C-alpha cells in the first residue's frame, strides 16, 4: 500500500479577487467594520492585536463616539494611584486592544500547547497573505483516509502539516452583523481578512491617494518641461549653418 505524506496533501491557497488590490481600489470600509465585529466577537477570545489602538478605528470603520463606546466596554489596569495601588478603569481611545491572556504560557495552557499568534501583522507575516488566511478559515474538512490526528488537532489542507490546533472558528449565522449582511462562513472570513489586511497596512488608502496625486502632478511637470524644451530648442533646430570658403 502506498504511503501518504503530509506534503502530498498540502494545498496552496487559490488567488481571490480582493477589491482593495486593484491599482485604484481602496478598502471596503463597511467590510472592515464587519470584520472588526468578527474579530471582537470570535477571534479576540484567543488572538491579540497589540499594535492596534481604538483611536485607529476612528474615521475608518467607526466615528469618534462609537470608538469611545467600544473602548469603554473594556477595563484596563492603570496606576498607581496616590496610595500606590493599581486600579481598573474603562478604556480610552489611546488604549490598545486588550490581550486575551496575560502571557504566552497562559495562552499555551488554555489552547492545548498551541500559541495563538498576534494578528496585527498576520497578513504580512504569511505567504499568500489574504488568500492564505481566508483559505485557512474556510478550509476545514474531514481528514482523508489513512491520516490520523492527535486529540485536539483538526485537519486543514492549507495549513503547513495539515494538523492545526485551532478549532474551526466560524460557522453560519454565528454573529449578527449590524448592517444586516448574512453572516455566512465565507462572508465572515472575507470581512475579517479585510479587517486584518487594513490592520497590517492602515496607510493603504492614503498611499494610493498620494500616488495618484503624484502621478497627476508629475504629468503636468513633464508636459511643461517638454513645452519648454521645444520652445528653447526651436531656434537652434531651425538655424542653417553656412560655411563660406
Automatic annotation (TrEMBL):
UniProt main location, coarse: mitochondrion
InterPro entries according to UniProt: Cyt_c-like_dom (IPR009056), Cyt_c-like_dom_sf (IPR036909), Cyt_c1 (IPR002326), Cyt_c1_TM_anchor_C (IPR021157)
GO cellular component annotations of the record: mitochondrial inner membrane; respiratory chain complex III
GO MF assignments: electron transfer activity; heme binding; metal ion binding
Keywords tagged on the record: Electron transport, Heme, Iron, Membrane, Metal-binding, Mitochondrion, Mitochondrion inner membrane, Respiratory chain, Transmembrane, Transmembrane helix, Transport
SUPFAM superfamilies for the chain: Cytochrome c (SSF46626), Cytochrome c1 subunit of cytochrome bc1 complex (Ubiquinol-cytochrome c reductase), transmembrane anchor (SSF81496)
BP term (GO), one: mitochondrial electron transport, ubiquinol to cytochrome c
Compartment(s) of residence: Mitochondrion inner membrane
Domain Cytochrome c, chain residue ranges per copy: 30-200
Cofactors demanded by this protein: heme c
Cofactor: how and how many bound: Binds 1 heme c group covalently per subunit.
Sequence similarity: Belongs to the cytochrome c family.
Official protein name in the record: Cytochrome c domain-containing protein
